[in-house]
Amino acid sequence: METASQGRVQQHGIVGMSPGAYARVLIFFLAPAVLVYTLFSVYPLLDTIISSFYSKQNDGSYVYNGVANFVTLLTDPTWSAPFWNAFINNIKFFLIHMLVQNPIGLLLAALLSLPVLRFRTAYRTLIFMPTMLSVVIIGFTWQLILSPLWGIAKMFLQAFGLGFLFGPWLGEESTALITISLISVWQFVGIPMILIYTALLAIPDELIDAATVDGLNQFQAFFHVKLPLIWPTIGLVSVLTFVNNFNAFDLIYAMKGALAGPNFSADIMGTLFYRVFFGNQLQLGDVSMGATIATMMFLIILCGVMIYLFLIQRRLQRYAF
Amino acid sequence: MRKPVSAFAVHAVLALYTALALFPIILVIMNSFKAKRAIFNTPLTPPMPWNFDPIGYSKVFGDSAIATYYMNSITVTVGTIFLTLLFGAMAAWALTEYKFRWNTALAIFLSIGIMVPIRLGSVSIIQLVSDLNLINTLTALILVYVAQNLPLAVFILSEFIQQIPRDLREAGRCDGLSEYNIFFYIILPLLRPAMATVAVFTMIPVWNDLWFPLLLAPTGGKQTITLGVQQFLGQYITDWNAVLAALSTAIIPVLVLYVIFSRQLIRGLTSGAVK
After folding, report:
1. Are residue A30 and residue A84 in the same domain, yes or no?
2. Which domain range does residue A99 map to?
3. What is the pLDDT of residue B78?
4. Residues B107 and B96 sit within 8 Å (Cβ to Cβ)
5. Residue A281: inside a domain, yes or no?
6. Which of B1, B121, B254 is opposite residue A133, by nearest beta carbon?
7. Are residues B19 and B117 in the same domain?
8. How would you label A231-264 residue by residue, b for 16+ Cβ within 10 Å and e otherwise?
9. How many CA atoms are closer than 13 Å to the CA of A276, on its beta-carbon side?
10. Are residues B251 and B188 in the same domain?
11. Cβ contacts of residue A20 below 8 Å, gap of 6+?
């Protein structure tokens, strides 16, 4: 190896290459990615955060006014009511995913990872299928199924003698958000399933064998041996769910439009952001307030990621296997 | 060894959930081929000669530019994947292979985008795109999607490049190959499996995205299929034949591709499940 010094990469350069040529190599490889990423991702994000500290004057110019936009958003009733409504709805949206989607994903992954299971690939492939489809398609499909006009959902409930439970779930203030959340759960359950399934497969068989030799049955082996080993993955699934849920928009827009009706009962941060920024039947678009809401979303997502990195990730260290 | 969880119970749960996952999709596709009366009276019967009616499809293909929308989606997705892989692999190579002062800082800078959704910068993206005169162009969509997908691509490809034996590049350098040739002729071909993983991660969200097409290319025949179907459905909301046919038109190609590539796709997801 020592003789190959001619071509070795050294500190700040390659032997036999002038500093200028080395810089050209670096620029050639790095410039495209760095330029596109900076211009279309980092710059817009920073610019949005900066815009949230400015407000539009009557002459159309923008003037710095500190945190006034945030104060307005959080205290002025015309802004704070929709904001807190969307924020609390978004928390409900997230909690439904955490309490329904991720446990179902865990259950399916646990079953799929059982040894000697027939049709494993078929189950895995088919259950993951809805995740592949566009949210728009899923939204409309469920709208049709739940529609009283078509009556599919009602027919199914009646078959089990539960016909009285049926109602226009998507149209009622009290049930619209829960219904949409469950549709989203139905579509995306494949993601926690696949992530947890992968983690379960990575657990060495000897550990499970040892546990069964010690007299644990399958359930005990799962809860006492496997589950503790996949906590890091469950932490990762949780933070992904958090980021995706607080960034969600498509499903509610596709099913309910920008007004996220009835009476904003399904409004979440993403739809509020869209409505404020672009305007709608009720109000004109507002760039500063749109940027302010986007910045709030950024802070919320940042909090979630930080909690994950500093509390969960640190305690669990890196992946154990 | 004790009797494990009853195999029957396991299959019952999995089969039931599979049915729940597939039922809505099958129901829509099935009914899209039926006459209106049959859709409402016997929704659970498959299409048969006596209830067959392709009226919905003739509306979808007659009234809307669905073929154009498909081409738009294909252009955007393929363009995004190509540029993400090329730029991502180049950057990943430079960051893992070369030593320079800002190496670590640049790697951290690029990885911010893995966790922060680009959507939050939309207010400024739309301003930027309109300043560049790119509103209602597919170029705008491609550039935004490349920026969105580069961080994860660089991350996955870097991990992979680190596993390529050092001797390969040293040998190339000894043979007098330039750095450019080492990358394009030695490294890039070796990256193929990792690139497949990145392509999978890139493809699905780009194809299905509604947000950026709505913001950046909502009109002018530059809609992607996802947005095009959304607009079509809004117009024809009461015409069930047309709605079911439009939904099926959007579902079927994705399902066919999925069934063909599901093995690679799931392998990609499980091997690259680091996001």
Report:
1. no
2. 76-316
3. 94
4. no
5. yes
6. B254
7. no
8. ebbbbbbbbbbbbbbbbbbbbbbbbbebbbbeeb
9. 26
10. yes
11. none
Please give the average per-residue pLDDT across A243-268, as a whole number. Answer: 89
Share of chain B above pLDDT 90, in %: 41
Minimal Cβ distance to B10: which of A7, A22, A117: A117
Are B80 and B128 found together in one domain? yes
How high is the pLDDT of residue B274? 41
| Residue from the list A10, A112, A141 with its beta carbon closest to the beta carbon of B24 | A141
Residues ≥6 apart with Cβ < 8 Å to A182 = A96, A100
For residue B58, is it within any domain? no
Size of interface A-B (CB pairs under 8 A): 264
Q: Which of A212, A282, A36 is nearest to B91 (CA)?
A: A36
Task: Answer whether B216 touches A (CB < 8 Å).
Answer: no
- Tokens representing A162 are 């539960």
Tokens 């660089």, residue? B154
Is residue A285 assigned to a domain?
yes
Give the mean pLDDT of chain B: 87
User: How distant is the Cα of B88 from the closest Cα of chain A, in angstroms?
Assistant: 6
Nearest by CB to residue B229, choosing from A9, A10, A136, is A136
B5 touches chain A (CB under 8 A): yes
Is A191 within a domain?
yes
Is B91 in the same domain as B160? yes
pLDDT band at A7 (very low <50, low <70, confident <90, very high): very low
B13 touches chain A (CB under 8 A): yes
Assigned domain for A198 exists = yes
Phi-psi label, residue A260: left if phi above 0, alpha if psi -120 to 50, beta otherwise: left
Closest residue of chain B to A218, computed from CA coordinates = B4
Highest mean pLDDT among A31-35, A157-161, B255-259, B264-268: A31-35
Residue B8 has pLDDT above 90, yes or no: no
| Of A252, A246, A283, the residue nearest A78 (C-alpha) | A283
**Tokens read off for A259:** 């007004």
Q: Which domain holds residue B25?
A: 7-53
Q: Total structural domains in chain A?
A: 2
Cβ within 8 Å, pair A249-B211? yes
Closest partner CB to B174 (pick from A6, A32, A129): A6
Chain B: give the shortest CA distance to residue A97, in Å: 17
- Min Cα–Cα distance to chain B from A182, Å: 13
Measured between CB atoms, does B243 come within 8 Å of chain A?
yes
Quick check: B90 and A32 CB within 8 A? yes
Interface with A, mutate which of B29, B98, B123 (most A CBs under 10 A):
B123
